[in-house]
Amino acid sequence: MSSFAARACAALALAAGLITVSVHGQLNHAAARTMVQEIGLPAIDRGVRNQDAPRDARSGANAAPARLGSTEHRPYLRGSVIVKFKDQATRAGIDAAASQLSGDLVTRAPHANFDILDIPADLDPEAAAAAMRARANVEYAQPRYVNHAMARPNDPLYGNQWNFPAIDMERAWDIQPGASSDIVVAVLDTGMAFRSITMRYLARVPFQLEAGGPVYPALGPVVMPFAAAPELGASGSPRFVAPRDFIWNDELPLDLDGHGTHVAGTIGQLTNNNSGTAGMAYNVRLMPVKVIRGIWDAVFGSPFEGTDDVVALGIRYAADHGANVINLSLGRETGGPAPVVADAIRYAVSRGCFVVAASGNTRAGGNAPNRLAQAAPEIDGFVAVGAVGRTLNPAFYSTTGPFVELAAPGGDQLEGGLAGGILQQTLDFDLIETYLRPLSQFAPPRADVFAHEYLQGTSMAAPHVSGFAALLMQQGLTNPAVIEAAMKAFATDRGAPGRDNAFGFGLINPRATLRGMGLAR
Amino acid sequence: MIAPLMRCLTVVMLCASPCTSQVSAQTQPPHPAHTSRPIQVGGYATAGHINLASAQSFDAILGTSSGLIFGGGLRAGLPFGGLFLDAGAWRYAKRGERAFVLNGTVYSLNIPVEVTMTPLELSAGWRFRFRRLPRFVPYVAAGVTVMKYVERSDFSTPAEDVDEQFVGRLFVGGAEIRLMRWLGAGTEVVWSSVRNALGDAGVSRAFDETGLGGTSFRFKITAGR
After folding, report:
1. Do A518 and B162 lie within an 8 Å CB cutoff?
2. Who is most buried in A148, A314, B94, B150, counting CB within 10 A?
3. Do A475 and B110 touch (CB under 8 A)?
4. Residue A79 and residue A103: Cα distance in Å, rounded?
5. The pLDDT of residue A75
6. Confidence band (pLDDT; 50, 70, 90) for A108?
7. Residue A477: its chain B contacts at CB < 8 A?
8. CA-to-CA distance for B123 and B143, rounded, in angstroms?
9. How are strands ordered across the β-sheet holding A104-105?
């Protein structure tokens, strides 16, 4: 199987090479990116990458170097109770017990060592069971309590997603199972693996990732296959709405990095599909908006990069095209304030969008704040999110400061190893980050091969809050300021009592927030 | 809970006793039959409308701060003037939705919740009798109410639901018309106060409301003398 796969890959690579060479002579050097075919090969899923070394904390900034349940509130069936009579109970005693409740014993089911006693429907089963328990010949009696699934997703890799049980998502999904397609979450990031397509790029110049590092040769024309991430949705499906690329200035926000696809997975990975992992708000529609330039975008000479204005454009675009939630797993730690972005966020909030930003990943290296997130305390409906690891303590990298308002799982692989990260499906980094290989193995990337990768970063924390916001919107809270207030009011206070600079108002508590308030409790 | 209840009842009885002699002196000359009359026991059914205290909280969750109540009870006329004891209960139940409150504005979360109040009211009072209007019997009473408050929501664990009892006080004023020897009809106003029952959490905390009582207007059908 593996030798066949290797041969197939080699054949594909050879074919790609031939295409590359043949196209080279005809290239119009003005066009750095063109579509070759509006189709691509089916995506390849290479499973969980659980043997890799932990990766650095991820953020957009370092992506590129540059029921109603039943209205009947009773938790049991009426009309019968479960009774276990003692072994020495006589037939007459059993009959007397049944007649005490005007009941009839149902024929015992195979494998049962207890009986079901039918009782009048107007009898309270709890009282009836208590009456039975008071009898000398009864070992136990109880109402027939109704059990229900705990909304634990059936995705086989869900067991690796500690982050969802950590915030009680299983019970939160009982209340609000994944929102619906009425809610649109815009992912402003490095793009998203949302479409199967074949693109041709031109890598004109050699490049170097860091001073003193190897110089990678210009690849020339590169034909690059893309596929929709199988766990996000099918290419061309209505799952993806209003895609927009502000880096290449077109409608193809393809992910050449993997960051955006991973973030989108935490928000809306297809769930309960017996495949892969789960996502927070797994029924929402996703709006891929590319505002961050990945390394390959830079190598291929994209006309724009992720400047404040591009980010602001992306925010305004998302707000104007129906986004309900905007996720900003991006930012910068250098430079001054970003009023253009703050203004765009105010605009988005005024249009009813809830905006979420990562606090930054600089705690271990100076703790410089994410400039784009610093406006969060001034804008109701915009929150800055710090990250916690598996122990629910602040992650080693998670930037702290007065602007941090909430905390969510972002992973901490210092304390939890590789599996201490957040697992979602994204591009297979082996095949996208070919510039991390030895120079002799440097090759064009491919974006049609996927794996489940553990990543850590406040970039991974923010989409938890975005998905949470989508669930709240579906539940009926639509005002961004109210959503923020509710999230804060029900957050689980950790660290220093009250608000603090690491957790903000606390760790998000989706279940408690979705449940809201009763009259007395 | 029983001890304060008994204390309250004792106080009510003590208060009622002096009133009895005064009022008797004014309205009814001493009558030997009063002391020799046996205890008269009757029952009643009641239906009415209550305006609940903590109105903002009830309105936030149930969409209203009032509603219909139905109940019944027993009344014993003691052989001391117009003195009587009353034990009654009623029930108020309504469904609503859990909510979030911000700056006084209520945002519904579409999660069903059912609130049930079932108070047991114990009171002592005085029935006034007028010779010129023998069928018209006004009365006043005071006593205690033992309020059973139940709040159940979907998606809640038993620990998250509320099932508690609180003790409060009540005052009653009403009048009855004897339709027949064994049958009467009447109306009464009952004011009850159950303090510190709410306000620790939920919307009642957001609105800083703590009381579970209210003012109810009830119609009664009584059987017995």
Report:
1. yes
2. A314
3. yes
4. 9
5. 60
6. confident
7. 100, 107, 109
8. 4
9. A104-105, A115-118, A76-85, A138-145
- What's residue A3's pLDDT? 40
pLDDT of residue B33: 45
Nearest CB to A519: which of B57, B107, B156? Answer: B57
Q: Is A520 on the interface with B (CB under 8 A)?
A: yes
- What's the confidence (pLDDT) of residue A153? 74
CA distance A54 to B40: 86
Burial of A334 (0-12, 13-18, 19+ CB in 10 A): exposed
Structure tokens at A381: 């409906």
φ/ψ bin of A367: left (φ > 0), alpha (ψ from -120 to 50), beta (otherwise): left
Whole-angstrom distance, CA of residue A418 vs CA of residue A300:
31
- As a whole number, the mean pLDDT across chain B is 88
Quote the pLDDT of residue A50.
78
pLDDT at A47: 83
Per residue in A384-406, pLDDT (tens digit) is: 999 999 999 999 999 999 999 99
| Spatial contact of A457 and A410, defined as CB atoms under 8 Å apart | yes
Residue B102's DSSP bridge partners are B105
Q: Which of A153-162, A176-185, B90-99, B216-225 has the lowest mean pLDDT?
A: A153-162
pLDDT digits (tens, 9 = 90+) for B174-218: 999 999 989 999 999 999 999 999 999 999 999 999 999 999 999
Say how far apart CA A184 and CA A474 lie, in whole Å. 11
Contact assessment for residue A470 and residue A185, using Cβ atoms and an 8 Å cutoff: yes
B113 and chain A in contact, CB less than 8 A? yes
Whether residue A72 is predicted with pLDDT greater than 90 in this model: the reply is no
Return the SS3 of A124.
Answer: coil
- Compute how many other C-beta atoms are within 10 angstroms of the C-beta atom of residue A392: 16
Residue B74 near residue B42, CB atoms below 8 Å: yes
CA distance A31 to A20: 15
Chain position carrying tokens 């991006």 = A330
Q: Considering only CA atoms, which of A124, A160, A159 is closest in space to residue A142?
A: A124
Domains of chain A plus CATH, in order, are 3-60+153-491+501-516 (3.40.50.200), 76-145 (3.30.70.80)
What are the residues facing A474 on neighbouring strands?
none
Chain A, 52 to 91: residues with Cβ < 8 Å from chain B are 67-71, 73, 75
**Which residues on adjacent β-strands are paired with residue A188?**
A289, A328
Q: Are A59 and A331 in contact (CB under 8 A)?
A: yes
pLDDT score of A286 more than 60: yes
Task: Return the residue matching tokens 């691509």.
Answer: A40
User: Residue A54: its pLDDT value, please?
Assistant: 78
Pure H helices in B28-54: 32-36
How far B57 CA sits from the closest chain A CA (Å)?
A: 6
Q: Is A111 on the interface with B (CB under 8 A)?
A: no
The minimal CB distance from A516 to the residues B95, B109, B161 is found for B109
Residue A488 near chain B (CB below 8 Å): no
**Rounded-to-10 torsion of CA A492, A498, A499, A501:** -90
| Mean of the per-residue pLDDT values of chain A | 88
pLDDT recorded at residue B26: 45
**Which candidate, A29, A84, A105, A43, places its Cα nearest to that of A270?**
A43
pTM of the model: 0.81
